[in-house]
Write a structure and sequence with these properties.
The protein is an all-beta fold and 206 residues long. It contains one helix and 13 strands. It is globular. The N terminus is likely disordered.
Length: 206
Amino acid sequence: MLRHRALLAAVCGAAIPAALFAFSAGPPPGSSGVPAAGNNQAENTCALCHSDSEGGQAGKLNPDALGKIELRGVPAKYVPGHSYPLEIHVSHPEAQRWGFQLTAVAGDDLHGAGDFAPLPNDKTTQKVVGLVAARNYIEHGATGKATGVGQKGQFGWKFTWIAPTGNEGKVSFYGVFNASNGDGSNGGDKIYAPVTGVLASSEPGK
């Protein structure tokens, strides 16, 4: 197993402040920052509606270098159809509420690669299905516990990735995460996106 580190972005994907409270229960699919590929447009991030300023206007990605994520458990080589336990660990010294969304893609059009599932009887994560390129997503759940309310400095989630049943070639993981101040508004939140693009990747194996 490999460990991967990167800077990430907060989850949102819509610029409508009235919908912000709904996103605390989980962002809409297509908010993980996958770039444009083939006929598929680039996904949004929550910089459209969350901001590191108190005004809550459209924010800037990566307003500082303090937000970090570690995706643990991604295999160097995946076996088609095999399940892999993964864990996301996020940190920011000023945050006290958290959110994320992650997807796995492959091919020239970055279509969905494999599937995700929460752990049994675990409500801290949830799967959502997107309408673009057959992408599946895993994200934080709807409860306060799932977003680590009051948890200062760091937080994490565990879930399962099910590799594609066939050889899809290289699989790339894209993810976004929110380091929030926890005041219930869309202002004062730190929005990050992967600096190098791909969060993690896995090659086909046997």
